């Protein structure tokens, strides 16, 4: 009996098939990320750490600055970086803005009116009685 060929391992959807996936971000997001990374590196450089860590921090700072310069010069990031900067057209709208409804204005609460005395509603009386004065109703 011949030995069976082993089957390839089953694919699991949690893991990507490719070793790296290309991420897409906007130019504004890239600039924001670079700015945050630079400020983080500056904060790390201010800490008292072993020399080898300080050297790594300086190296990372230079790498961040180099990536920024390459992007500013070419408008793109090298393909091996697995990052793509998406530059949307200026007059095109993103799908997220076209599907959003405008925010609803809060409704104004109904204003309450003070109660009106019944005797003020009578129109055929010649004068309004004073609060102390009693009013008698005579039937015709």
From TrEMBL:
Biased composition (Acidic residues): 131-140
Region span, Disordered: 75-140
Superkingdom of the organism of origin: Eukaryota
Bias type Basic and acidic residues, positions: 75-84
Protein name: Uncharacterized protein
Organism of provenance: Puccinia coronata f. sp. avenae
